[in-house]
Specification:
Length: about 425
């Protein structure tokens, strides 16, 4: 790859003596290095598997091992999952800590008299209704990236929860929307495929924003009750009737008078025969366990497909790219987040206690977007790299050296070939 500032559309900022240093030239290449962060553990993130192992779902003898001593199974078990290159596997000590700091979340013990259940559960809904936040709350770990930017989730991401006698393979899906690009159509396809292959569907919508409520509602005047969002009506009509549906009304914490929500819940209940209706606040982890209770009862009776300490079937390099993109979403506005994609070019994990080395390219569509991402003196790109590196270190449990490039790839969102190269348009959900 070209290194000069005006060649290959690549920018870099260097690092010397263990200290990250922004390059002085506009054409500098960014290296988001270790920055002195300590190593959480020597636990590795997985191993390469052969094509035959992926197809059969066989367990690799070198797969990462968690606190229980069981090995993780990349890509094995839940029906319809494609092969994976490397699994994020078991959680490290840092991963097991809840966001509220109240210690590890133990795996619930199943009643010996209860039959084991295992099911694939799709989280479906409009963009930004809190599907990823619900997944993270159920896992007790911020696996999926979240941001206020619509369409943050681009791929179906699986997170495994063992809840009593049930193994719940939760699939966080892209928000279904009216697509304006080929990428948008691919995202919708991933969400619909996840719903079609699911044993249970959790339909997620949100309580209305009080700032947008009609004045008559705020002042408790007579009038028509709050109505379902038109997008919810369309999505519910498209779900079909094959799998049971649990209805989840998220973000109820932002409505002080919960009585205002009763007509809305009643309106949804008249639209279809839901298996359960559960109001929650995923951000506050309020009601999440009840969602899992309701889903667990609907999962088919069958053997578990994952070890109790497995978190996901996605490769760690997938999350490395996601965590870089998460920081782009948080650092930039307007069109830049939607026009950015992250591609892992190099992923080298040593056999000893050394650092994990990752080289990643950030693709944007226009030179102006590239300039915004790099920032003055490459400071913006350095901040993105530093924050992403810390997130990756939490996942893999070891030091990470992260190098970032920025490249202009015109109209990558409209090219099926480019989408395939960047990991989208795989033809099936994960």
């Amino acid at each position: 790859m070209e290194r000069a500032g005006k060649q290959g559309g690549v920018e870099r900022a260097g690092k010397q003596g263990g200290v990250e240093r922004a390059g002085k030239r506009a054409g500098a290449k960014e290296t988001a290095g270790r920055g002195g962060a300590g190593r959480a553990s020597a636990e590795q993130g997985g191993v390469e598997r052969t094509a035959q192992e992926r197809r059969s779902g066989a367990r690799s003898p070198d797969a990462p091992r968690g606190p229980s001593g069981r090995g993780s199974r990349p890509g094995g078990g839940a029906k319809g999952r494609p092969p994976t290159e490397r699994t994020a596997g078991a959680r490290s000590g840092a991963q097991q800590q809840r966001r509220k700091g109240d210690g590890p979340r133990p795996t619930e013990q199943a009643d010996a008299s209860s039959p084991r259940r295992s099911g694939r559960v799709a989280l479906v809904g409009r963009p930004n209704v809190g599907k990823s936040t619900l997944l993270n709350a159920a896992l007790g770990h911020p696996l999926a990236i979240v941001s206020p930017t619509p369409q943050t989730t681009r791929d179906a991401i699986l997170g495994v929860v063992h809840h009593g006698a049930a193994e719940i393979a939760l699939l966080d899906t892209p928000g279904l929307h009216r697509p304006r690009t080929e990428l948008g159509r691919v995202m919708n396809q991933a969400a619909r495929e996840a719903a079609r292959s699911a044993d249970v569907i959790v339909f997620v919508t949100e309580a209305p924003d009080p700032a947008r409520l009609p004045r008559r509602v705020k002042e408790d005047e007579e009038g028509p009750p709050i109505a379902p969002h038109p997008g919810d009506l369309t999505l519910l009509a498209d779900l079909g009737s094959e799998a049971p549906v649990v209805f989840v009304l998220n973000k109820v914490d932002r409505v002080r008078d919960k009585a205002l929500l009763l007509p809305l819940l009643d309106a949804f209940a008249k639209l279809r025969d839901f298996a359960a209706i559960v109001p929650i606040s995923a951000l506050r982890e309020d009601g999440v366990q009840r969602v899992l209770d309701e889903v667990a009862k609907l999962c088919p009776e069958q053997a578990w497909s994952f070890a109790p300490d497995e978190l996901t079937d996605r490769p760690t390099r997938f999350f490395a790219a996601e965590y870089v993109r998460e920081q782009i979403l948080r650092a930039t506005k307007a069109e830049v987040p939607h026009a950015s994609a992250v591609q892992i070019e190099r992923y080298v994990e040593p056999t000893g206690d050394g650092a994990l080395h990752i080289d990643a390219t950030i693709h944007v569509e226009r030179p102006g977007q590239k300039k915004i991402l790099i920032g003055a003196g490459a400071e913006q790109l350095k901040r993105i790299g530093t924050e992403a590196r810390l997130r990756i270190e939490e996942l893999v449990g070891r030091q990470v050296n992260l190098k970032l490039w920025v490249r202009v790839t015109p109209e990558w969102r409209e090219s099926l070939q480019r989408l395939e190269e960047l990991g989208y348009n795989k033809g099936e959900a994960s």
